[in-house]
Amino acid sequence: MTTLTILPSATSIAVAEGDSLLAAMLASGAPVAHKCDGEASCGQCHLFVIEGRKGLSRISRAENDILDTIVGVGSKSRLACQATLTGTEDVTVEVLSFV
Ligand code: FES
Fold first, then answer.
1. CATH number where 57 lies
2. Span 29-42, mean pLDDT?
3. What pTM was computed for the model?
4. Which keywords appear in this protein's UniProt record, sorted alphabetically (predicted)?
5. Domain count of the chain?
């Protein structure tokens, strides 16, 4: 299990290896926008990874293509629906858009 901390609420939850950030966050009740339900097409689940980048899967070409279309993307940007927890280290994310 990995600890996922969600900012700005500072909520911490235990998550299983292999879960996407989006699935883990929704299961915990965290309000994160996800119009396309994880199909990597809406970009609403964009968030910043504050700590624990190595605790997440690598960015795929599909994820990178969507990130390229979003205003405000930076080096810490990920799509919650595409980033999968690897279980190697705890992760802290900052949610940028809410439902
Ligand atoms: S939920 Fe739409 S891109 Fe992630």
1. 3.10.20.30
2. 92
3. 0.93
4. 2Fe-2S, Iron, Iron-sulfur, Metal-binding
5. 1
